[in-house]
Structures are given as structure tokens and as C-alpha cells.
Amino acid sequence: MRYEAPSSLEKAVALLAQAPGEARVLAGGTDLLVQMKTDLVEPELLVDIKGIAELRQIKEEAGGFRIGAAVSGAELKEHPRLKSVWPGIVEAANLIGSTQIQGRASMGGNLCNGSPAADSVPALIAASAKASVVGPKGRRDVPVEDIMIGPRRLSLAKGEIIASFLLPPKSARTGEAYLRFIPRTEMDIAVVGCGVCLTLDSRGVCSAARVSLGAVAARPLLVAPAAAALIGSRLEDAAMQRLDAAARAACQPIDDKRGTKEYRIKVAGVLARRAAQIALERARKS
Ligand SMILES: Cc1cc2nc3c(=O)[nH]c(=O)nc-3n(C[C@H](O)[C@H](O)[C@H](O)COP(=O)(O)OP(=O)(O)OC[C@H]3O[C@@H](n4cnc5c(N)ncnc54)[C@H](O)[C@@H]3O)c2cc1C
Fold it and tell me: I need a surface site. Which of 61, 227, 278, 280 has the fewest CB within 10 A?
């Protein structure tokens, strides 16, 4: 196996694009190294991206934030402004693993590992984040919900790397939240995860919303009917019931040791309501 640690994105892309056999990006390694140790993957080339400055920065840009794809959860938490503007994103990334894991694990790796239960992904989708994808044909911006197409399957072409995530400017009276349910108190994979981002108008009526569910289908979902249940309402009980029903209707989960299909569907509705309530409180305060 060959290990390369290029200092530029162009060099990383060229290495990946020209590799004859299986080549993998190495960010924090908290998924990849475990998979290599258990022989799930056997790359011929590892391209370590942690030495590439663009992938390690958090910048305020065009009224929003650009977060390098290899920034760790711990670095996100320590950014002076990010947590106050996008608390749901930072909280989601910091649900990943333990303190040690958070020192390494990136949101780029969380998305590109291709797990439907990845914690930061529904939060990014709800926030309308775009992934900046760089490859042999140049750079393109892709909504995060379009990156993963199934378990371990991505829409990225050979040689393409996610360089960063762009969070848009946050309009007034906007709040967001991510919640997950796990069988243990820490260090477990989500049975269901839910991200909600909503905006209120000056009268306190919801004027825009996005709802995303994780771990209930083959890929994280953007659930438009769940958002529609909130828009035009003040998130009173009837709207929350409609949200619960829409979230449940979107689920196509599997049975596994963490929960049955029926259980996951029920939890999806409950989490959607709870995440919407937190997003509402944050929107009122923002
Ligand atoms: C003990 C433990 C607990 C965990 N708990 C959680 C949890 O609670 N929630 C959760 O969601 N996950 C959890 N994970 C999984 C893992 O930590 C996360 O998915 C993490 O975010 C992966 O990031 P990474 O930087 O370590 O990725 P890596 O392992 O470096 O990479 C993962 C995959 O993505 C690819 N990749 C990485 N970056 C890019 C990029 N920029 N562009 C293109 N491809 C890329 C790699 O080639 C690899 O295939 C846990 C893992 C462990 C070991």
C-alpha cells in the first residue's frame, strides 16, 4: 500500500484520479482505519488530506460559513462564532463518538463513509449546506442531500474530493437543531437522527423549513412534506401532529439489533417534533 500526504488539493485530486487500483481519501481515519483493520477495504493508495490548508479551515464567507471537509468535530466546537450561529451543526458533529474520536473525525468523512446513520449529515441537509466537490474536471457545488445515493454509495466520480461545506447566510428568526436517538447514553449509532431548520416571519409564523431524517432509509432524507407541515403554522399542536405524521410516512427503515422498523418509524415522528421545538425556540431568540 502507498501512502501520500499532498499539500495541495490539485495534487490530491491527481493522485486519486491517476491511481490504477482502489484509492481512498484519508481524513480522520475513524471509519477508514477500522475498515482496513477488519479487511472490509484494502486500498492500494491512501491520500491523506489533513495537510491541505483549504480543507482544514473555517471561514466566514458571503455572509455564511465555509467549513473545510477535514475540520474535526473538536475544531468546530472551538470556533468562536460558528456554534452561536449554527448550534445544530456543531452539536451534531460533536455527537460523533468520544472525545478522542471528535479530535479526528471530520464531516467530510462522516458524509463520504456513506452510512445512512451519519450524525452530521441530516444537520447539514436541514441547514441547506452545499458540498464543494473538486475533481479532475474542476469544482462543482452539490447540495449535501445529493452526495450519498445509498449505503456506501456516493455520487462522486473517480478522483473527486469534498473540499468544504458552505453554510448559507442565516436569515433573521432562523433556528436549527439536530437530535438523535441511541440505545445507550453515548458512543452508539443512531436509531434515528433528525435535523430541522426553520424561519419565522415577524408575526412568528413559520415561513420556511427543512426537515432531514437519518437512519430510516438507505440514505439520509430531505423530507419536503414534513417541512410543508410546519410552513404557515406557529408550530401549534396540530402542525406538530402533521409533522410527526409526515416524518413517519417518509421512513423506509430496516430492522436491526438497535430497533425494529415500527420502532424507528415511531421514533422518527417523536424526534422530528422535539427537534422542531428546539429550532423554534432558537429562531425566536435569534
Ligand atoms: C468508536 C467510534 C464511534 C463512532 N461514533 C459515531 C457516531 O456516534 N456517529 C457517527 O455518525 N459516526 C460515528 N463513528 C464513525 C466515524 O467516526 C464518523 O463517520 C467520522 O465522521 C468519519 O470521519 P473521518 O474524518 O474519520 O473519516 P475517514 O475515516 O478518514 O473517512 C471515511 C470515508 O470517507 C472518505 N473521505 C473522507 N473524507 C473525504 C473527503 N473530504 N472527500 C471524499 N472522501 C472522503 C474516506 O476515503 C473513507 O472512505 C464512530 C466511529 C468510531 C470508531
Answer: 61
